[in-house]
# Entry
Amino acid sequence: AACATNVVGNNPGCVIAADSIMINGAVPVTGSKPLVPVAATTIDMTAATLDASSHRAAGGQTGAGADPATCDAGTAPGAHGGGAGGSFGGTGGAGGNDNVGMHGGAAGAAQPTLTVLRGGCPGQPGDAAGGTAGTPGHGGGAIYLVAGTSITISSGTINASGQPGTGGAMQGAGAGGGGAGGLIAFDAPTVTSNGTVFANGGGGAEGAGANSTGRTPADPTATAAPGGAGATNAGGDGGAGAFGANAGAPGLQAGTSAGNVSGGGGGGGGGAGLIKIYQAASIGGTGTVSPPPS
# Structure
């Protein structure tokens, strides 16, 4: 469906309006504007996926409305330091230090009060240190569902998680930090989910050794957001992204690699996104929701 063109006033989202909305199948949610399905009566999902995550699998994707200009970039890493994770509903993990305990990136401030429709913030790149810096993960995208009577997820998934960072490559380069989770909002008198709803942070990647490349972690799931580890003997491991009640974890400090070269610091895990509820007192049903709704 195409975005509505007759929305009055400042419209920050892609509005798709109907009397009722049924969502089936897999729907990638990308572009510059967050997705805003608006139903006069009901929104129903059955065996469906709304994917506004930023991810690296299957060729990669950046979620709709991710990485807004209002993000706090934090303090970039210095020599051999890992990049910090992005922040949104929660603060990203700090970037890992070099082998003498210095130069890891510091995450920007969390922005848990929602004042504009937007996605999560990106992580920081690592420091190149003569190699190739790990790249940061994008923040997760944003979906705002509005219904006059009810929103029901009978089965399926809504995902607005952040993207993992990538590993530093050679010469002790620092790893990239994970992107923060994005936004999933429900605005209806009754909200029920027997599916999976998550906006977790992306994992931080592993720092490089003198002659090796750090590991890039897998994309977050509903119950885990691993950091990169195990590919080098001197690069710091990446911090896990935020999931559930767990905050984005810091990247670990580097060791010393061949030729007395400092390894690269691990990337920090991305902070939690936001799951927001309006009108309804809570999300009913037996589904998984991460992070906890507010």
